[in-house]
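User: Teach me something about this protein's shape.
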Amino acid sequence: MSSSARTPGPNGQPDLSVIVPAYNEADTIAQVVERVQALPYGIQIIVVDDASTDATYDVATGLGDGVEVLRHDRNQGKGAALRTGFAAARGRVVVIQDADLEYDPVEIPNLVEPIFAGHADVVYGSRLIGGRPQRVHLFWHKAGNRALSLLTNVLYNTTLTDMETGYKAFTLEVLRAIEPLRESDFRIEPELTAKICRGGFRVYELPIAYYGRSYDEGKKITWRDGFPAVWALLKYRFKD
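Assistant: First, the predicted structure itself:
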């Protein structure tokens, strides 16, 4: 980690705001938050419970005063949870952290290093460029991710390998520049990518480990979510 990452921001601004959208993740939310808390930064942790029907909210609120827990009164989707979390973010860098441990918070220092070093405004953690452990399963899921990334590159003249990655980091200034965000479901991923690409920001990519779950283990996104993602990529190519 660079020394700049340890320098407090103005007025005690946290180094990182880590946004954790959660829906029925009582089994893993505590592990995720504890691993984030162990990172060597000043961190604002925001858990957004999207009206879980299990004990996610109770577990999250029991994790201590250092964790901000926000709750939706009805299930609205990942995009809505992220928008709620983004609105409360104060850190110099904002990181999306899923609550299911498919992405391990130990990856976050590498993810944010190019930003703190002054090279990048945005960093994507790619599951598809190799070099880190990957679970071997779900061929069509991987093929769909590659197809969506190819479409992104054609539409936005970029070279991303993993547009749908759940690990995205960006400066708070980037986040405020691409708002308002509008999507409430998994279309938030292509919306974020479209607005970032159109904004002319410096985007970097690096390999991350991916401990993917099967659908029996609780994975929520399916092949059906690919069609709305295509539509979102097309829509935000031409409108804000």
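Now, about its shape. Confidence is low (pLDDT under 50) at residues 1-8. The radius of gyration is 17 Å. If you'd like, I can walk through any region in more detail.
User: That's plenty for now, thanks!
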